[in-house]
């Protein structure tokens, strides 16, 4: 069928048709490179990163790009991120009389090492559950300590606290907040807090909102990173979970609370601003 007849049928000029053919022959190298970067970051996030997260990562790498363009590239690549569904939190008002809720949901702080929070979750590893204890610095939502074991006992939370205390240079006058779990109320853990000169705070019974940053961290870990069938054994789980917490989550993953930068970057920005003032 002659080109002129087809162009007349669609009411377009022949020059437009030939220009379109030329464009199809031309390979947009820059766009292909961007697609490769988007695909690499999406794969690295284990299919959890959306357009906002990938935009932040690209910006950190020096690539100037908007969220709309990232969304278009993800659509062209057929990339669909997985996100956790809503979580139903219980409401409660009962505090421990001996360990009040000193934090009182004051999750926004002015500097690191003012308040840490901790919690325990479970991870399938081989033929049984393993348990993960994490310590989070609330200033920039940075993971500062963690520990895993096959037993959810006081030793587990003490190891996570010891890790955090050493990692952060043995700070003093830190508030440590947790739920009312028996591990955090144990004599061994409370003695460790006393040794480190830390103030203990506890959520109201059954109220997950009182420790919401930890809840969000665990939801992100389980929805973004941990394989659907868990791990083959505890050593494999430790290596992979540790990589997520201390590297990907702390250093690479943009955090909404930090205006789209990672926790480590947020703390470094504070150091720069403090040095300028």
TrEMBL record:
A Gene Ontology molecular function term of the record: nucleic acid binding
Name of one Pfam family that matches: rve
Domain Integrase catalytic: residue ranges: 108-271
Superkingdom assignment: Bacteria
Stored InterPro entries: HTH-like_dom (IPR025948), Integrase_cat-core (IPR001584), RNaseH-like_sf (IPR012337), RNaseH_sf (IPR036397), Transpos_IS3 (IPR048020), Transposase_IS3/IS150/IS904 (IPR050900)
PROSITE patterns: INTEGRASE (PS50994)
Gene Ontology BP annotations: DNA integration
Full protein name: Integrase catalytic domain-containing protein
Organism: Marinobacter algicola DG893
Taxonomic lineage from the root: Bacteria, Pseudomonadati, Pseudomonadota, Gammaproteobacteria, Pseudomonadales
């Amino acid at each position: 069928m002659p080109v002129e007849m087809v162009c007349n049928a669609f009411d377009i000029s022949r020059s437009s048709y030939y220009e379109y053919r030329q464009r199809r022959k031309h390979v947009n190298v820059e766009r292909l490179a961007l697609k490769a970067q988007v695909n690499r970051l999406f794969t690295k996030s284990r299919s959890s990163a959306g357009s906002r997260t990938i935009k932040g990562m690209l910006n950190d790498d020096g690539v100037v790009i908007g969220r709309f363009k990232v969304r278009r590239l993800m659509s062209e690549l057929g990339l669909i991120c997985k996100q956790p569904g809503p979580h139903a939190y219980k409401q409660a008002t009962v505090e421990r009389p001996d360990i009040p809720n000193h934090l009182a949901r004051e999750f926004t702080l002015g500097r690191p090492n003012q308040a840490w929070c901790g919690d325990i979750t479970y991870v399938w590893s081989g033929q049984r559950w393993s348990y993960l204890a994490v310590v989070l610095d609330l200033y920039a939502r940075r993971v500062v300590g963690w520990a895993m074991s096959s037993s959810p006992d006081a030793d587990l939370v003490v190891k996570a606290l010891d890790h955090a205390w050493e990692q952060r240079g043995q700070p003093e006058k830190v508030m440590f907040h947790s739920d009312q779990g028996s591990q955090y109320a144990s004599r061994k853990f409370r003695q460790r807090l006393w040794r480190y000169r830390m103030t203990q705070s506890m959520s109201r019974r059954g109220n997950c909102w009182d420790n919401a940053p930890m809840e969000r961290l665990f939801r992100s870990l389980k929805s973004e990173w941990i394989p659907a069938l868990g791990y083959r054994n505890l050593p494999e789980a430790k290596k992979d979970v540790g990589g997520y917490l201390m590297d990907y989550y702390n250093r690479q993953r943009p955090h909404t609370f930090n205006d789209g930068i990672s926790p480590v970057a947020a703390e470094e920005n504070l150091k720069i601003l403090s040095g300028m003032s």
